[in-house]
Amino acid sequence: MTLFSRIFILITTLLLAACSNERESDEQWAHSDLSSYAAAFSPDGKYVLMGDTDAPARLWDIEKNSVVYTWQNNEAIGTTTLAAFSADSKVAATVEQGGVVSDVTASFRNNVEIVAQDMIVLWEVATGEPMLRLTFPVRIKAIALSQHGDYLLLALYDRTVVYFDVIENRVLQILEHDGKAVNSPINQLINAVAISPSGKYALTGGDDRTARLWRLETGEQLRSWKHENQVNIVAFYPKGGYVLTGAGNGQTHFWNMKTGEEKYILRDSFWPKEWALPDFPSFKSTTSAFDFSPDNKILVTGHPSQKICLWKVATGDKIECWQVARKKALRPGVVLQAVAFSQDGKAIYSESGNGIGQKWLLK
Q1: Is CATH 3.40.50.360 the right assignment for the domain spanning 3-361?
Q2: What is the full DSSP assignment across 202-245?
Q3: Domain assignments of the chain as residue spans, ordered by start
Q4: Which terminal residue of the chain has fewer beta carbons within 10 Å of its beta carbon, N or C?
C-alpha cells in the first residue's frame, strides 16, 4: 500500500469517527426489565414484539407505549430467543427455549439426535390468542413467516433450513448450504432466512459466507452470492427484483435477483464509490437490523456499534448516520436489534439489546 493510500485511510477513519456523534432520541421507553434477547416490529408499524431474558414476551403498542399482550407458552417461562411477524402483520411468532415434543417432530426423530428443543407459538395479533404451538427437536437459529403466516422458514442448528406448511402440518422443503464455498466437507450453519413477498422464493445466509436464492416450490437453488465473512442478514426488497445481504464484520450488498449482479455496497465512509473498498477494519461493519420506508425509497439499518444509518435505495448513497446514546452505563453496549419506519415515514423506531426503545424524528 502506498504512503498516499495510508494517509487517505487515516483521514477517512478520522472523518468517519467525527461524523459518528451520539444523538439524543426524541422519545425513549424501557421495554424490557433486564435486557431483550429479541425484538421485531410489525410491518404495519403499529407494534413491537419484545423477547425478554427469563420473562414472557410482550407486544407493545408503539405510539401508546403500552403493553397490549403478554405472551408465553404453557410451560415454565423461558427466554424468548426469536420474534417475528407475518408480512400482513396479523400473525406474530415467538420462539422459546425448551418445550414438550409434539407430533410435528415425528419426521425428524429418526434422523436427528435430540439435544434441545425450541417451541414456536403463532399468535393472532388481533386477539392475542395462540393459534398454534409447534416444537422442533432441534434448536432454531432464525425464523421468517410468509405473507399471511401460513408458512414458516426455519433455520435449524442441525445445519438445515425447513420450509414448513402450518396448515398442513408438514415439511415441504429442506434446504442446505454445502461447505464447498469454504472448502469444508460438511454442511454449514445457516444464520438468516427470508421469504419473498410473492411467497415464491427463499433467501438464506450462512457460515459458508454465501447468501443463496431458492425456488420454494421445488427447492431449486437459483443463485449464490459469496461474501467476505459469514452472512448474518438477508432480505427481499418489498417492490421485488432485488435482495439485501450482509456479512458480519464485512459489507452489506444490494443484488439484482434476475442478473445476479451487485447493484451497490452500503458505504458509511467517504471512500469514492468508483474505487474498491480496502481490506481495512474502518470500512467494515455488521448490519444487525433493517427496514424500508413506506414508499420503499429509503432504507434504515441498525448496527451493533450503536449506529443507525439512512440510505437512498435507488443509489445506495448514505443520507446520514448517528450514534445511539447509551442511557445506562451499567447495561451492555447498544446493539440495535430492530429498526423500523413509522407509519407516516417521518420517524424511525429502534430497539436495543439493553431493553430501550427509542423514537427518532427525521429532519
Answers
A1: no
A2: EEEEETTSEEEEEETTTTEEEEEEE-SS-EEEEEE-TTSSEEEE
A3: 3-361
A4: C
